[in-house]
Amino acid sequence: MPNQEFRMTTFTTDDCGFLLEPESWTEEFAVAVAPSVGLPDGLTQRHWRVIMFLREVFEESERCPLLYEVCRANDLTVEDLQRLFPAGYLRGVCRLAGMRIGRANAIPCEGRVRQLT
Questions:
Q1: Tens digits of per-residue pLDDT, 89-99?
Q2: Which residue of 2, 16, 34, 106 has the lowest C-beta tally within 10 Å?
Q3: Torsion angle of alpha carbons 24, 22, 83, 41, nearest 10°?
Q4: What is the pLDDT of residues 7-36, one digit of tens each?
Q5: Nearest CA among 46, 50, 40 for reference residue 96
Q6: pLDDT in tens, 57-76
Q7: What is the CA 15 to chain-centroid distance, rounded?
Q8: How far is residue 51's CA from residue 94's CA, in Å, rounded to a whole number?
Q9: What's 108's DSSP letter?
């Protein structure tokens, strides 16, 4: 299992950079991952609102909400969400929030780990 380090904190991720233990998520993880999901200028309040909604749902129900639930709760269309998170829902929003949907091997990746800097 790869480890990624950011500001003296180590996060254990899979080969695609998704956290293996969603409970270990911190805001620092999201900040570190943002450039690798197409957000080189960092996270805005709109990004944080969506990310924190995912975290709240996860903490309450131990599941990642469906795309339409996220859009409805945050008054966004799917197109708005795509513009906000260019990498998409799963590879963008869910990854930033420290979780993934479905089976661990459901998302193909390049098999490499991007270092968090």
A1: 999 999 999 99
A2: 106
A3: 10
A4: 567 788 888 888 888 888 999 999 999 999
A5: 50
A6: 999 998 889 999 999 999 99
A7: 14
A8: 8
A9: -
